[in-house]
Amino acid sequence: MSDLTKLKISEARDGLKEGKFSSRELIAAHLTAMGSAKGMNAFITETLDKAVDGATKSDDRRAKGDVGKLEGIPLAIKDLFCTKGVLTTAGSHILDGFTPQYESTVTTNLWNEGAVMLGKVNLDEFAMGSSNETSFYGNVVNPWRRTTDDQPLVPGGSSGGSASAVASNIAMGATGTDTGGSIRQPAAFTGIVGMKPTYGRCSRWGVVAFASSLDQAGPMTRSVQDAAIMLEAMCGFDPKDSTSVDMAVPNFEAALTGDIRGLKVGIPKEYRLDGISSEISALWEKGIEWLKNAGAEIVDISLPHTKYALPAYYIIAPAEASSNLARYDGVRFGLRVEGESLDDMYSKTRGEGFGEEVKRRLLIGTYALSAGYYDAYYLKAQKVRARIADDFKEAYKSVDVILTPTTPSAAFAFGEKGDDPLEMYLNDVFTVPASLAGLPGISVPAGLSADGLPLGLQILGRPFDEETVLRAAGVLEKAAEFTATPTAWWRG
Amino acid sequence: MSLDKNTVAKVANLARIRVEEKDLEPMAAELNAILGWVEQLGEVNTDDVAPMTSVADMQMRWRQDEITDGGYQPEIVANAPSEEEGFFAVPKVIE
């Protein structure tokens, strides 16, 4: 039964229910796939024993009629979620050996619904990156290659390990986190579905913090339906996170009616950037056509402050990170580099423990929050953020969802954008505005570039209206008929 | 607003991040490139705009002021690089 890894969550759910295979068989197939894909470097920690044990327990529960929403489904967990008794690194040297004594709320929710963990997947250090090149545990490789050459490509970031594991059929789904695009951008680069729900939907408790007013967990899967299933299991009110929203969790799967007649879809003119590749523009036009053919009404809209989203983000996120990452001091967990004094120990530990990109952002953040500069940088950025959020509020008076490309280009090769941090930051130009506004967004694989790489389209929605986002995404997915898969170069 | 080498050294000290002397200059150049790019925020009129502090319009929740957690000292110090008798141990602070 070698094709068990090709199943979507929805299909595996049916197969398990009908008794065609057990969770043990399902997990075994995925562990074999994981074992043969080491060259991709998607996993930091493989939890084989835990997976086998989890599958056995799942089969036992099923025999007793106790079946969760994700019963027996193999998942990969981004190594930013604290998992009790399992090494959690955030992709950083500074968390060396850190073994949480507690479990994050999101993963607890997943296990309560019967999901089984395969392991912890690689990411950019502290989720700071758009190419998965900043991890202390090395680069993750994209399962996709250009048809024109054999150069290894980045999987996007920061949830690069999650994206590669799902795209290469090692995991049926994976958790990601999105601060400025870290779920949607790698999903687009690897031809899978990635969803960031509204800020406050998923608890941040037990997730290593990057920028607290932006961080939000979400599912990465191989179909929109799977995203709906997994999101429903992940989210819910959590008193342990003060920004968690006390709202009932809808049946997201039921929202996938396939009917978008009369839905108003906004096309923001400011997203038509000069530097955007013609392939991306063409795909966007196709997406507009698909939704129109399905009965949606296309509305031209304006989000005037779009161009200021990235610079505002690169003040707000580093500022919040500089505060959040103050906890890595060599005292309570992780790495300690001894020094001559307490201060010297702090500085040496942090100097050695953090990578270059993290240091760069912590210094920017510290500067932006320092006396005399707070108003000019952080306060100003938060005001610009308010205007960006207002742009969306205004737009949602006349439209229900917004359709844009997910990224300005397809996946690129390692080192191609390494030298200039600003060039790398531009990867998130289409994803950051919705992050600042806290809105739900999804990336759906919608086509291939001329050299055979996946490209994604993004649908954004109103706050807490994931249902409409999913419904529109489902229609887009059906129209796009994206069935391409990467060639399995990693087996061998 | 341009950062020089000394300012970077000062900020690095505030952030408690050791940056080697030879790395200060290149770091200053990188940070200046980013801050220069951020300057464009000045083009946005933000008079009478309240800074955004929360994504969803929500009130902070109240709860009873009572102990709801605790009593697991061994777990708290389980990951400490240095621990003595249930306490975090650090280099000597007072001579």
Describe what this molecule looks like in 3D.
The complex is a heterodimer of chains A (492) and B (95). In chain A, helix 5 (160-167) runs parallel beside helix 6 (184-190), helix 7 (224-234) packs antiparallel against helix 15 (466-480) and helix 9 (309-324) crosses helix 12. The radius of gyration of chain A is 21 Å and the shape is globular. The mean pLDDT of chain A is 96. The two termini of chain A are 20 Å apart. In chain A, 61% of the residues are buried. An eleven-stranded mixed sheet of chain A has the order 1-3-2-4-6-5-10-11-9-7-8, sandwiched between helices. With 492 residues, chain A is an alpha/beta fold. Chain A has a domain at 2-248: Alpha-Beta Complex (Amidase signature (AS) enzymes), CATH 3.90.1300. Chain A has helices at 9-17, 23-35, 48-63, 105-112, 160-167, 184-190, 224-234, 278-293, 309-324, 342-353, 356-369, 375-395, 421-425, 432-437, 466-480, and strands at 43-46, 74-78, 116-121, 173-178, 193-196, 216-221, 264-268, 297-301, 401-405, 441-448, 454-461. Chain B is mainly α and 95 residues long. Chain B has a domain at 5-40. Chain B has three helices and two strands; from the N terminus they run H-H-H-E-E. Chain B has helices spanning 5-14, 21-38, 73-77, and strands at residues 83-84, 87-88. In chain B, helix 1 crosses helix 2. Chain B starts with a helix and ends in a 7-residue tail after the last strand. The model of chain B has no long low-confidence stretch (mean pLDDT 92). The chains are: A alpha/beta (492), B mainly alpha (95). The interface between A and B is large, with 75 and 52 residues.
